[in-house]
Structures
1.
Amino acid sequence: MFAPALFKMTRSWIGLSAAVLLFGAVVPATGSASSSDNSGTSARQSTAPTSKDDNVKKSNLKKADPTDSTHATTSDAAPNVPAAYRIGVDDQIQISVWREHDLSLSVVVRPDGVITMPLLNDIQVVGMTPKELADSLTEKLKPFVNEPQVTVSVQAIHSRKVYLIGNASRQGVFELNDNKTAMELIAEAGGLSQFAKTNGIYILRVVNGSEVRIPFRYKDAVSGKAQDVLLMPGDKVVVP
């Protein structure tokens, strides 16, 4: 009589114990999963600043792009030409008209002393300073351009020339881009030949439309007994 009841009580106790054990196993597992999710969230949160830094770096790289037009520079450089320099034949000049790309150009002065520009056609420029030419072009462009702003610069000087003729190692035409003396010209040409009359050299120069003869005693100048001669554009140094 008591045996079946005792059996039922024992089975109920076993079932309750099993339920308790099962619940204990499930709760830690759930906590572990939650902890794992939290760890994953923390990991994602910890990587967020790194992603932001990368974006900042990319932004900085974009700003430093060397192809950006704001960083563009020009490599064009004009020689150091005095403001009083007068333009001559074969000189190369740069004409810039602000905001008028089609009117801005680099030209070489023709043998007739003329250059050609859009709208203005042929313009006489020989004997003018860069500023004088800029002022003249400004006036000429007013019928075509609203408030033209013109600048003129000399890019290369080829009009200042001197000539070496006779018994020199190298005869020919030499550019006179700076102050140069007869002795310096002869040195640039490689010296005189062995048959040159060193104290018979002379310089032909046009003064007021007439050609004058200026003696140059080379041998005495080398020894300091005579003065060197400063050359002028168009001078002809003759070595007999």
2.
Amino acid sequence: MLVLFGLLFLAPALRAETVVLKSGLRINITSYQLLGEKYHLQLSGGMVEVPVEEVVSIEPQLLFTSEPLFTGPYREFIQAAATKYKVDADLISSVIAIESNFDPKAISRRNARGLMQLMPQTASQLGVKNIFDPKENIDGGTHLLRDLLQRYNNDLVLALAAYNAGTVRVVAAVPPIRETRNYVVKVKKNYDQKKGDKRKADPSEAQRKAAIDAAKVELGQTDGDGN
């Protein structure tokens, strides 16, 4: 049961997270507080009160910003697209790694093509004229990724699922498609590895993770991958 409160004017939040409920609903929040047997969740437009037993997990949302220190194959094209669409260059690189293993001539059995495995019709809609041109393909793929992140309110899991399976199949949860679920896991793992060193060096990240871990302890939850 969710209880909605009136709009509250609070100081700007320093984190963004997603609360996953037993019903499968995912709520994007700016902050939360555990008071007794209920979570008080701060949304952009008000406060939501949720019983502890209804919460499955509290997951961090990733802030997608361009980082000039990105290195790797096609780094100039990736960084240009990252800056243009305000998507993390490491995320773009991770999608390319899983989609095509950085092969600009890759063609899937479903006819997805190029570094970011764009379907010809999608590429055309994104303004890509030469789907095998690394610069154009990366620009188009990043454009699509940006649109999906906006559509799913910066929920990386849902955006990646939709990149693989399409928006029709992804509404509020990852569809029960093995290929899609494996794809999301692989991209997130690759991306997390790229960001690992930067997270360790960021004190605010450590504080955020500690808060999430504390909330999981309150819920009696553990997970195998430590996230």
